[in-house]
Amino acid sequence: MNTRTYFLAGFVAASGALAFAYYLQYAVGLDPCPLCIFQRVAMAGFGLFCLIGLIHAPAGAGHRVYAGLATVCALTGAAIAARHVWLMHLPPDQVPACGPGLNYLIDVMPLTEVLSTVLRGDASCATVKGAFLGISLPAWTCVYFLLLSLGGLAGVFGLGARGVRSS
């Protein structure tokens, strides 16, 4: 697989996931919680680094750098999604109370406090709003991020991409 095909596949995978998330929000009516929004940001970051890699089409170290940055985004998204799944499985008496909305937090707090508050989660994040085959959407998202991470790592180590690994 050449560099452009590799990054095109990553960009299409991220774009498709984001399109599906927006479909669920606007067509189905599943409003995202703050952790869902952060997962979208991680997915957008993955897609952005793949798009830059697609446009730039570097060989060698450049390919590995873009693949590595995309992998960091995917692993960050997987960690956020895993946290989301963990919150969903807490006993009801251990779920954090609902807090203010993300827009309010962004308006009144520094970014580091917003991140800390959102990653703690609240009751809106602990509610299962959608599932497929009995598995929650955040769990599916975690699996998807892990698959994207494997693809990213393949690019970092030059597996299957021509011109990436010199012999």
Give structural notes.
It is a single chain. By secondary structure, the chain is mainly alpha-helical. It has helices spanning 3-28, 34-56, 61-88, 102-108, 111-120, 123-126, 137-156; strands spanning 131-132, 135-136. It has one domain (3-156): Bromodomain-like (Up-down Bundle). The chain has 7 helices and 2 strands, in the order ααααααββα. It has a two-stranded antiparallel sheet with strand order 1-2. Strand 1 (131-132) and strand 2 form a beta hairpin. It is elongated and about 50 Å long. 31% of the residues are buried. Mean pLDDT is 83; it is low at 163-167.
Assign the CATH superfamily: DsbB-like
Order of helices and strands: HHHHHHEEH
The rough form would be described as elongated
Q: What distance lies between the first and last C-alpha atoms, to the nearest angstrom?
A: 17 Å
Strand-residue proportion: under 5%
How many domains, as an integer? 1
Number of helices: 7
Strand order of the largest sheet: 1-2
Number of strands: 2
Give the mean pLDDT: 83
Structural class: mainly alpha
CATH domain class: Mainly Alpha
- Determine the CATH topology: Bromodomain-like
Largest sheet: 2 strands, antiparallel
Oligomeric form: single chain
Low-confidence stretches: 163-167
CATH architecture annotation: Up-down Bundle
Rg over CA atoms, rounded to whole Å, is 17 Å
